[in-house]
Amino acid sequence: MTERQSIWVFIEQVDGRVADVSLELIGRARELADPLGYEVVGLLCGHEVEEAARDVIRHGADRVLLADDAELASYRTLPYARVAITEARRRQPEIFLVGGTPNGRDFAPRVASALRCGLTADCTDLQIGDYESRREGKTFRNLLFQIRPAFGGNLVATIVNPNSRPQMATVREGVMRMPASDASRTGVVEAVVPEFELGDFALEILSRQVRHSTVKLKDAPVIVAGGAGISDAEEFALLRDLANLLGGEVGASRAAVDAGWIGREHQVGQTGTTVRPRLYIAAGISGAIQHRAGMDQSSKIIAINTDPTAPMLQIAHYRIVGDVGEVLPMIIKALRERSMDHREETE
Q1: Please, are residues 118 and 30 in contact by the beta-carbon 8 Å criterion?
Q2: How far apart (Å, rounded) are the C-alpha atoms in residues 295 and 312?
Q3: pLDDT value of position 338
Q4: Mean pLDDT for each consecutive 10-residue tract of the chain (347 residues)?
């Protein structure tokens, strides 16, 4: 592998299933790498996970560095970081991307500190560009532009790291599009031998308990979300009725969660889940940038708000200026009548 001519992605997996965010990052790495002629490399740690490595190749990687060891069966900071640090020092990647998951946020700072490189957290976009440094009086070519919200989401910052490698970033889940799996793609699965040290095993996992949420916002084709404009629990129940009719999920802004109308697992936005449904209905959501950052890539947006100047109405494809408590019952009634008419026609 040519020195510093590769983009790496840390591949998270649980029981052999690759995390969606890792595949999303493989897809984005592919888009960044192709114009530069770089190789896309996945770094995968685990035990008996070769099929997961093949899945990463099918989604766009050229090479997967596979550290297969019983000690790597479950994520632990020090053994996983040891593999990444050793291989990064040996192979010198140009860019190293990590999903902004709980494990990724634990793993990335440890690796960046050991490699003495910068790390930008919670990016929402990645681009390649040139940076002109006035202080150094020169232009740096083909840097990674690491783009993330700043100052509580009121600004969007672009961060560059011209002087150290790799350029590292964690990236929020769901902000990159998932690439399609291509069974015809071929690549190299290269085994790497972990070089552990005694101190890497200071932590022992005694048991693991997995809690599965029934809320599937990321996969929902339709999301009906409510915000501060919802006046009470009864109005919020209308969102559930509409979501059920449309075969979707209920979402919420932070204001609605803080008001206690719904659990935090339903929150969409900068501090919640990033979603890309086919249809997003924003009921009583003003559209602060923190919320828009989590849903503005929806295919179609319908906004319902009493304020015609609300930011959400400015990005919506369809705008309804009115009270949520009046508008939602009319939509629900129309959908139910349409469903009844359709059943009568088919009988």
Answers
A1: no
A2: 11
A3: 85
A4: 77 94 97 96 96 97 96 94 96 96 95 95 93 87 91 79 94 90 95 90 82 80 94 86 94 91 90 91 92 90 96 95 94 88 59
Q: Is the dihedral of CA 254, 260, 266, 272 positive or negative?
A: positive
Amino acid sitting at position 58: R
- CB crowding 196-216: b at 16 or more within 10 Å, else e: beeebeeeeeeeeeeeeeebe
Residue given tokens 């766009």 in the structure block: 60
Count CB-CB contacts under 10 A for residue 176.
27
pLDDT at position 90 is: 95
Q: What tokens appear for 287 in the block?
A: 């559209």
Distances (CA, A) of 168 to 10, 116, 122, 138, 142: 11, 11, 11, 22, 14
Q: 3-class secondary structure for 128-155?
A: EEEEEECCCCEEEEEEEEEEEEECCCCE
pLDDT of the residue at 342: 59
Return all residues near 258 (Cβ < 8 A) that are at least 6 apart.
none
User: Token pair of 253, please?
Assistant: 């802004």
Tokens 């997967």 sit on residue:
64
Q: For position 92, what pLDDT does the model report? A: 95
Strand order in the sheet with 155-159: 125-133, 138-150, 155-159
In the block, residue with structure tokens 């070089």: 195
Cβ proximity of 39 and 26 under 8 Å: no
Q: Which domains occur in the chain, in start order?
A: 6-201 (3.40.50.620), 217-346 (3.40.50.1220)
Q: Is there a cis peptide before residue 35, judged by omega within 30 degrees of 0?
A: no
How many angstroms separate the CA atoms of 53 and 58, rounded? 9
- Residue 2: the pLDDT is 42
The first and second tokens of residue 3, run together, are 């020195």
For residue 345, CA distances in Å to 88, 291, 335, 338, 340 come to: 64, 41, 15, 11, 9
Strands (E), the chain: 6-11, 13-14, 17-18, 39-46, 63-68, 95-99, 119-123, 125-133, 138-150, 155-159, 167-171, 188-191, 222-226, 249-252, 279-283, 300-305, 318-321
